[in-house]
Amino acid sequence: MKDTKLNFKELFKIYSKKYPELFKFYERQRTISYIFIILTLFTVSFFGIFAIMPTLSTITTLKKQKADNELVAQKLKTKLNNLNQLKQLYSANTGAIQKVDAAIPETAQIPIVVKKVEALAQQNNLFISNIVTGPITLYPTENKTPPLYSYTLSMSLIGDTQNINSFISQIINLDRIIGIETIGSGATNENRSEVVITGRVFFYATK
What we know:
single chain; 207 residues; alpha+beta; Alpha-Beta Plaits; five-stranded antiparallel sheet; 21% strand; disordered N terminus
């Protein structure tokens, strides 16, 4: 018995011969559909590139800015820690720094130095017969930064030897540095000791 069932290929051949126009229309529509799909994909890809590129560029820029900001933040954090340590160190040495500033200040302060010497002489029951300050000079060279200046302070004192020795010891240990350069001693007509002291007083100038 002959098989009357036709497969898909045989049916396609029969209908293509019987309805050729229908199949031509189908082929045209299928071709148009393919072209439309291809053009759509191309259009989406083409405009997608222009839409995505600025976004990718923005992302790259933001990543770089983030990395730079993190680096700056780390440096600022390190600097802040160093400043805090310096602040703690300064607080711990405030007393020593104040003593240094008082020992060699930024100005000559001649009247203040003279008053301190007079006060020490009075405490030791000494009479100051003469006290003279010399001219201000650069000490010792101009290579110091800031430059160090000095002036001489010469004084004549009359009193007991023990009190004079006490005065010399106190003036050496004065909060303001006075370097003793010369000491000359003698006696007065009243058989009292007399001493002539020349010291050098230092200060520096930042301007």
